C-alpha cells in the first residue's frame, strides 16, 4: 500500500469515527487530543459505565467492555469515570483502556464527612443539573452544597425542581422557585414534572447541547426525568417504597446516553449527600452576592461579625441579604477549609512515606555496594 493511500484511509477512518461518535460529544478538539493515540492504533470511545476493574465504552464500532487495569492508579481522582474519553486497544481479550484524555470538567465529591476521600462522579460535563424534589421540604443548604461542587466542576449548574405536579398551586410554586433562586445566583431554576411533562421541553432544549449530568439525592426523580428526556424507559426507576435508596441497586446498563434530540445525558446513582471537595471557588460562586458585598466592607479582611462599615451586615440589616445565606456561607467555607487541611496532611504523609521508602532503598543500595554482608 502506498503511503498516500494509507494516509487517505486513516483520514477517512477518522471522519467515520467523528461521525459515529459525534452524538456522544466527540468534536475536533477531542480528535486533536486523541491524535497521538490514533497514531498508536488505539480506538477512541466514551465511557458509559464503570464497574469494578471494567468499563463499558461506546466506540464507532459499537459498545465494548474493556479492562481498566492500566488506568487504575491509587489516586481515586485519576481513575477513569463515566464521561471520560478513552483510548482503547483495537483487539484483545480482555481489551485494555490505555489512557483517557485530559478532562475538560470533572464533578468530584467527598464521600466521607470526617476524612478526605474524593470520588469523581462524572467527567466532561457541560451542564450540571441538580434535581431537587418538591415532594419534600426544600433544603436550601443542601442545594447550595450541590451548587458549590457543580460550579467547582467547571460545568454550568442548573436546578430542576422535580415533581412539580405535587405543587398544583402556581403561586405557591413560584414562591418555591424564588426561594431557590435566592440561593442560586447565576443559575436557572426550572420546575419540571415527569408526570405531566411540564418543563420537560424547556429542559430538553437546554440539554440538547453538550453533556449534562443529573445530580441529586436518591429519590429526587432523576431517572424518571432521564426517561422523559429519552422518550423511553431506559433508566430504572425506584419503586415508591424504595425512595430512600436502601432497597436495591439499579440494573441500568449505561449511565451515559445520547439523547434523541441531541446532547448527552449522564445519570448518577442516588447520593445520600455530597461532601465538599476542595471547592473554594465553587463556594464563592454560590455566594456571589456575599463575595461582592465583602468587597465593599471597610476592612478588606472583614469577618462580617461586628466590624464597623461591614457591607454584609448592612445588607442583612436592610433585609436585602438573608441571614441564613451568611450562615450557610460560613458553614461551607469552614467545611471546605477542614477538608483541604486534611487533604494536605494526607499528601504530606504520602510524600513522607515515599521519602522513607526511598531512603531505606538508598541505605540498602549503599550497604550492598559496600559488600552487603555485615
Ligand atoms: N408525582 C411525581 N412523582 C415522580 C415524578 N418523577 C419521579 N417520581 C417518583 O419518584 C420516585 C423516585 O424516582 P426516581 O426517578 O427513581 O428517582 P432517582 O433516585 O432520583 O433516580 C419514583 O417513585 C417516581 O415514580 C414526578 O414528576 N411526579
Ligand atoms: Mg435513579
Ligand atoms: Zn464585612
TrEMBL record:
Keywords: Cytoplasm, GTP-binding, Hydrolase, Metal-binding, Nucleotide-binding, Ribosome biogenesis, RNA-binding, rRNA-binding, Zinc. It is found in: Cytoplasm. Its EC number is 3.6.1.-. Zn(2+) binds at residues 297, 302, 304, 310. Binds 1 zinc ion per subunit. GTP binds at residues 162-165, 216-224. SUPFAM superfamilies: P-loop containing nucleoside triphosphate hydrolases. It is an enzyme of class 3 (hydrolase). InterPro entries: G_CP_dom, P-loop_NTPase, Ribosome_biogen_GTPase_RsgA, RsgA_GTPase_dom. One of several proteins that assist in the late maturation steps of the functional core of the 30S ribosomal subunit. Helps release RbfA from mature subunits. May play a role in the assembly of ribosomal proteins into the subunit. Circularly permuted GTPase that catalyzes slow GTP hydrolysis, GTPase activity is stimulated by the 30S ribosomal subunit. Belongs to the TRAFAC class YlqF/YawG GTPase family. RsgA subfamily. This is Small ribosomal subunit biogenesis GTPase RsgA. It comes from Streptomyces noboritoensis. The lineage of its organism: Bacteria, Bacillati, Actinomycetota, Actinomycetes, Kitasatosporales.
Amino acid at each position: 500500500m502506498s503511503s498516500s493511500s494509507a494516509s487517505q484511509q486513516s483520514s477517512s477512518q477518522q471522519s467515520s469515527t467523528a461521525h459515529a461518535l459525534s452524538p456522544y460529544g466527540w468534536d475536533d478538539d477531542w480528535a486533536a487530543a486523541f491524535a497521538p493515540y490514533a497514531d498508536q492504533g488505539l480506538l477512541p470511545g466514551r465511557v458509559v459505565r464503570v464497574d469494578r476493574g471494567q468499563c463499558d465504552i461506546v466506540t464507532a464500532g459499537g459498545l465494548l467492555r474493556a479492562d481498566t487495569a492500566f488506568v487504575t492508579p491509587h489516586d481515586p481522582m485519576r481513575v477513569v469515570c463515566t464521561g471520560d474519553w478513552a483510548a482503547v486497544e483495537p483487539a484483545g481479550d480482555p481489551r485494555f483502556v490505555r489512557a483517557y484524555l485530559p478532562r475538560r470538567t470533572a464533578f468530584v465529591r467527598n464521600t466521607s464527612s470526617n476524612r478526605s476521600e474524593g470520588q469523581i462522579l462524572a467527567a466532561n460535563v457541560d451542564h450540571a443539573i441538580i434535581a431537587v424534589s418538591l415532594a419534600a421540604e426544600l433544603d436550601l443548604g443542601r442545594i447550595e452544597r450541590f451548587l458549590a461542587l457543580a460550579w467547582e466542576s467547571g460545568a454550568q449548574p442548573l436546578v430542576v425542581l422535580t415533581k412539580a405536579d405535587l405543587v398544583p398551586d402556581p403561586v405557591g410554586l413560584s414562591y418555591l422557585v424564588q426561594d431557590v433562586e435566592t440561593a442560586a445566583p447565576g443559575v436557572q431554576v426550572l420546575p419540571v414534572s415527569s408526570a405531566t411533562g411540564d418543563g420537560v421541553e424547556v429542559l430538553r432544549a437546554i440539554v440538547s447541547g453538550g453533556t449534562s449530568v443529573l445530580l441529586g439525592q436518591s429519590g429526587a426523580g432523576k431517572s424518571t426525568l432521564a426517561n422523559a428526556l429519552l422518550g423511553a424507559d431506559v433508566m430504572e426507576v425506584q419503586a415508591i417504597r424504595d425512595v430512600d435508596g436502601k432497597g436495591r441497586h439499579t440494573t441500568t446498563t449505561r449511565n451515559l446516553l445520547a439523547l434523541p434530540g441531541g446532547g448527552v445525558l449522564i445519570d448518577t446513582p442516588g447520593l445520600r449527600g455530597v461532601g465538599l471537595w476542595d471547592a473554594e471557588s465553587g463556594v464563592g460562586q454560590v455566594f456571589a452576592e456575599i463575595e461582592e458585598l465583602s468587597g465593599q466592607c471597610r476592612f478588606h479582611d472583614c469577618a462580617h461579625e461586628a466590624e464597623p462599615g461591614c457591607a454584609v451586615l448592612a445588607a442583612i440589616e436592610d433585609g436585602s441579604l438573608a441571614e441564613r445565606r451568611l450562615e450557610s456561607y460560613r458553614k461551607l467555607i469552614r467545611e471546605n477549609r477542614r477538608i483541604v487541611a486534611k487533604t494536605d496532611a494526607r499528601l504530606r504523609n504520602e510524600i513522607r512515606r515515599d521519602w522513607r521508602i526511598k531512603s531505606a532503598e538508598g541505605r540498602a543500595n549503599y550497604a550492598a555496594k559496600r559488600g552487603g554482608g555485615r
